[in-house]
Amino acid sequence: MADPLRWLQEIPDFDGMRVTVMGLGTFGGGVGVTRYLVERGAIVTVTDLQAADALAGSLEQLRDVPPAALHLGGHQDADFENADLVVVSPAVPLDNRWLRRATAAGALLTSEINLFCLGCPARVIGVTGSSGKSTTAALIAALLQASGRRSWLGGNIGESLLPRLDEIAADHLVVLELSSFQLEPLDAIRWSPDVAVVTNFAPNHLDRHGTLAAYEHAKQTILRWQQDEDIAVLNAEDGQVAAWPVKGRVIRFGESVDEGEHVQIRREVLEVRIADAEATLFTAGAPLQGRHNRANIAAAVAAVVAATGSANSALLEAALSQFRGLPHRLEAVGAAAGRLFVNDSKSTTPEATVAALEAFRRPVMLIAGGADKGVDLVPLAREIASRAKGVALIGAVGPELERLIAAAQQGQRPFRHVARSLEHAVRWAFENSDEGDVILLSPGCASFGWFSSYVDRGQQFVSVVERLRLE
Predict the structure, then answer these.
(1) Which residue ranges in the chain fall short of pLDDT 50?
(2) Is there a single domain that holds both residue 131 and residue 104?
(3) Which residues are annotated as a binding site?
(4) Other C-beta atoms within 10 Å of 280: how many?
(5) Where is the Mur ligase central domain (predicted)?
(6) How many CA within 13 A on the CB side of residue 179?
(7) Is residue 89 part of a domain?
(8) Of 151, 330, 342, 390, whose CB count within 10 A is highest?
C-alpha cells in the first residue's frame, strides 16, 4: 500500500527550506506561491510539464524574485526526492505518482490556498458551487467594499492573495472562490471558512474525481470543518445542497424559503431576514440578468448581511446597480447586423448553459461543446432542443452532442451544425440567424483541447466578433 500523503499543518520558518512548486501555470497561483516562498528565504524549484514559451507570462512576473531552479517541460526525480515541501497545483490530482514519490522520501505537501488559509488572520467568506461561484464571490466583495468594509477577493478568481498576506488585518474580510480541486487539500488540514456559501451542486469534473460521491465529498469540505459559531449560506432550491450536514448557523436563499434565517427571492425583490437584520431590496436595477443571477445576488446578499450584521437597503441596491458582472459570464461583447453577441465562455457545466439559455427572451443561436468531463449530456441536449433556435457544436463532444440534440428535438429546430473551429461556428451561427437574434457562446464543457483556457476561448470568440463587425 502506498504511503498516505502528509500535509503541512502550520506555517513554518521557510528560510533555507527546500521547496518544490509543482505547476507554475498561467492563472496566478503558481506565481503567487513562488513569490511568497522566495521572499521568505526558501530554496525554491519550480517544475512544470509545460515548456517555457507556454509559461512566458508567468515567468515574466518572477523576474524580480527568481527561484533557485526552473525545470520546465517535464519533472525530475530529484525535485521530489530531495524536497522538504512540495506545493501542489490544483491541476494535479492527489493520486499523482510524483506526490507519492515525494511522500515516500519524507516531504510534506501543501497548496497555495492551504498556505493562505493557514496564515490568514481575517475572517473568510468561502464560495463554492458547480456554477455561479465566480459571480457570487465577486459580488460579495463588491457589496463589502460598498459597505465600507476592507475586503479582499481571491482563491479561484483574481490574483493570488498569498504574497499580500502581511497586508491583511484581523478586522478585514476575505472572499475566496473555492473549486473542488482547491477544497481537496483543505480537507487535509481540516479547514472551512467562517462563512460558507454554496450556490448549487451538479455533476462536474468526473474525469478528475472519478465518481459523483468523490466530487461531492470534495465540495462538502467547505462545511465539514466549520464550528458552531460559523455560518452556512445554502441554496434552498437545491435539494442535495439543502441536505448537506451543517454544524453552524444556516441561512437559506431561494424562491420558496420563508422560515428561519433567509433571503427570499420574489422576482425582482429580495426579502432579507437574518438575525436582527431585516430589509426589502429591489433588484430591478441590477445589470445581472436571468433567474440564476437572481439566485447569485440572493446568495451574495445573505453572505454580506451575515458577515457584517447589517442590511442597509439603499446601500446594497446602489452597489447591485453598479455591478457589471465578470468577463466571460453572459458578457455582451458587440452587435452586428442586428445580432447581439454574448460571451459566456466561463460556462463549463451543462447547468450553466441551461441558465444562460433561460436568461434570454430573444431567439438564441447557441455555440456549445468542448472537452469531455465525463458528465451526462442528455439533459443539456434536451434543453438545447427545446430552447435554442440553432446550435453550432464545437470540441471533442461536438458530434455526440449533435446526435443527442437530434434525438431530442421535435420538428425542424434547432438548426444543428458541427463546426471545425470556433470561427467556423460563429460564422455559421451569424449566417443562419436573423436580425434580433442572440448569438451566444455558452459551451457547457471544458475548454482544453481546442483552447488553453476558458479565457482563451472567450477572447477568441471576441476576436471573431470584431472581425465580423468590420466586414
Answers:
(1) 1
(2) no
(3) 129-135
(4) 13
(5) 127-304
(6) 18
(7) yes
(8) 330
